[in-house]
Every structure is written in structure tokens, then in C-alpha cells.
Amino acid sequence: MRITRTGGGRGRRAAALTTTVLTASALLLTGCSSDGDSDSSDANGKITLKVADFGQFGYKEAGLFAQYQKLHPNITVKEETTANEQDYYPKLLQQLNAGNGLADVTGIEVGRIKEVVDTQAGKFTDLSKSINVADWVSWKEKQATAKDGSVIGAGTDIGPMSLCYRRDLFQQAGLPSDREAVAKAVAGGWEDYIKLGEQYKKKAPSGTYFMDSASAMYNAVVSSSPKQYYDADGKAVYKDSESVKQGWNLAAEAAAKKLSQGVPQFQDPWQAALRKGTIASMACPAWMAAQITTYSGDNYKGKWDIARAPGSAAANWGGSFLAVPKSGKHVKEATDLVKWLTAPEQQAAVFKAVGVFPSNKGAYELASVKSAKLPYFNDAPIGQIYADEAKSIPEAVLGPKDAAIKDTISTQINNMEQRGTSPEKAWGAATESIDKAIG
């Protein structure tokens, strides 16, 4: 399960889709790992391909590994999953530096891809020689492209942004509750979202809060800008970044006005808040709907809805890649597996099984994606909403320590909410920690 992910504390849990209808379910994966080298062919010419990933990529739930093995009787696919990406990534770096212990296929989180591209690209297979990388949304390809033009990661999912909200709580607070009306109310951007929160607070049902955490809103704001933490030359510019300033100021305003419950996403208090029904809205990348469904439970089915994200700028929060180490004993077979897993039909199958949104543009025209609806969220046309968002997401400049910067800033925003730390002290603590981390 991708309960804790880098890039602002991203988390994911399973959501199941039918051909035209999306439903959610709670699926858990147990973490496991292996320090051994990739298996070689046995005496009968059969091989085992190891796929190392983190959280929930959805291939097992979609039955894709079993399907691939039927198509290729001489191949067995063994998935090795680590629950927490923050545990997975250091081990991956150790294996890369040591030159052994790597799986045939490795998952890489978007918050890490720039660092891997800049420092480890030579250790991975150039997938552009065997996969049509133009099939992905354009910015996805560029994220995994090294200076020499090689593409070291095949795009899996992305996280186009929306706004999830409780229709019933909005109605009780005198706010618009229809998804089109909500989208119109926040059309001016996240500043409008703050204003809507102030209106909500005036008539808020007892014990409820407008948003879950200001840090989640902060990450959504920054994710909508092509300029975030680094410039095109690789220099850390987060202190002067307009998107960081905007996100930070809005988060500080939300904390000061107590519009947020101040519960960091995916932690126990956040899960408990969803179970109790005390959260009225939250920034909602595609993978978030399954989290809400899982923890809110049957009591709130049909009470949640999904509207387009605030403002006119599309945003992406999250996403991963599959890479093939050159040191593997079955590079060709591993590359063929990656090519198949990231094709439109297979990405649509993963969307159907666990609700993560495809990065392959060809999947957007398939019925299982294009017509998908989410019954738990009042039949929100999730396929249409996220496909439209995905097509207009700007190319963001990534940096090697994006994940560390996001996580550190998010922690200090939480301190403003939970401890009453002043924005000045919180920002000072964040920059001090970040500067030490990035050198």
C-alpha cells in the first residue's frame, strides 16, 4: 500500500472500478524485500523476473502479473513490495551504489526521479529504444529523461488534482454543494478556496473543519506551477519561488484562521477524522479518492463529491516510474514486461482495479477510463475530470531534493497548525533544515 509517499506525504490505497463505474475498497499489501541478485534461468530455460516497488502499483490487484505469465509461459514474475517509500528509496540507492541486489524492474517515485536521473542514469536501460515514450503525457517523459537523451523510467501513474468535499456539510453551512457550483465558487484559485472556508466556518456544523490540513493545500498550490523548488539550471530556488510563497502564505492564513483541523494526511488522527466525518474538504489528487472512501466508510457514501480543482491552472501531485537496471540478468525480458505494463490497456486495468490514474494518453480514450464514475462520490465523472486535468498540466522543473524540501515545509506548516508556531519561526526552521539537507 502506498500509505506514505514522498512528495508532500503522498499516500494511496486501493479503489476498484467497473467498466463505467468506480467503486472503492480497502486493499492492503504487506512489505517485503530481498537482498539477493535477480534469479537466472533454470535448467528448463524458465526465468523469474523480480519487480521491486513500494506501496501499491496495482499490478497484482489488476491480475496483470498472472496475465503476463499466461502470455509468456517461460516467465514467472515475482513482486517485492515495500509498504513505505521512505524505506524503499534508501535501499534502492544502496543497491545502485553497491552494484548488486537490484531487482529486474524497480519502481521510482516522482519525488526521487530527478536525483536518480542526475546521479544514476548510467545504471539504467534507455527505454526510449524499445518503448514509444511519446505515448505518455509529455511532461512525464521529460521527468525521466537524462542529459544524454536516454529515458530511464517508464511512466506509470500521475496525480491530476481535484477538490473532494462533503456535499452534506457544505449544505448545512449554507455553501453551494453541486459540483459545478463548487467549482465556480473557487474558480479564482486557492485564494477563493480560503474565502469559501471563511464562509464555511461561520455556519460550520459543530465539530467540523473546512479542510484536513493546510500542508495538503500548500502542496496542491505548489503542484500547479511549473516553477517550484529548483530552476532549470538545477539551483535550489525555493526561497524565492512564487508558488512556494503563495502556498506558504495561504497555509499560514488557513492556520491562523483555524480553517483546518491540522491533521497530517495518512496518519492515525487523519484517518480518525475521516471516520468521524469532521473534514469538509481537501485537495484531492486522483489517488486520494480511495483513501477517503476507505477511512470514511459506508456512513458517508454518497455524501462526498468531487469538483474541479480551484483556479484555472492544472496541477499534478504524485506519480511513479518503472525502470530496468542494466545490471539485471534478464534486461530484454524485463524491458518487455515494463513496455507491456505501461501500455494503455494495462494502465486502464490498473485504474479499474486500484484507482490510480494512467500517464499513457492512449488510456484516456478507453471506455473503462473515459466513462468511469465514482459512486461513493455521488457518481462523480472521475474519468472525465482527471483526463481533462491531465492534458493541461504544465511541465514542472524537478530537482534532486524535491521530496525532502516538500516534506520539511509540510512539517513546519503542521507546527503552525498544531503548536501555534509563528509563520516566521516556522519558515526559519524549515529553511535551516532544508539548507542542511541539500548542501
How does this model look, in words?
The chain has 439 residues and is α+β, with helices and mostly antiparallel strands. The chain is 41% helix and 16% strand. It contains 17 helices and 13 strands. The strands form three sheets. Strands 5, 6, 7, 8, 9, 10, 11, 12 and 13 form a nine-stranded mixed β-sheet that branches. Strands 1-2 form a two-stranded antiparallel ribbon. α1 (64-71) links the parallel β5 (47-54) and β6. α8 runs antiparallel to α16. It starts with a strand and ends with a helix.
Helices and strands in order, then pairings?
Elements: E1 2-5, E2 10-12, E3 15-17, E4 22-24, E5 47-54, H1 64-71, E6 75-82, H2 85-98, E7 105-109, H3 110-120, H4 138-143, E8 154-166, H5 167-172, H6 179-185, H7 190-202, E9 209-211, H8 214-223, H9 242-256, H10 268-276, E10 279-285, H11 288-296, E11 304-308, E12 316-323, H12 331-341, H13 344-354, E13 357-358, H14 367-370, H15 382-391, H16 402-419, H17 423-438
Parallel strand pairs: 5-6, 5-7, 9-10
Antiparallel strand pairs: 1-2, 3-4, 7-12, 8-10, 8-11, 8-12, 8-13
Helix pairs in contact: 8-9, 8-16, 9-16, 16-17
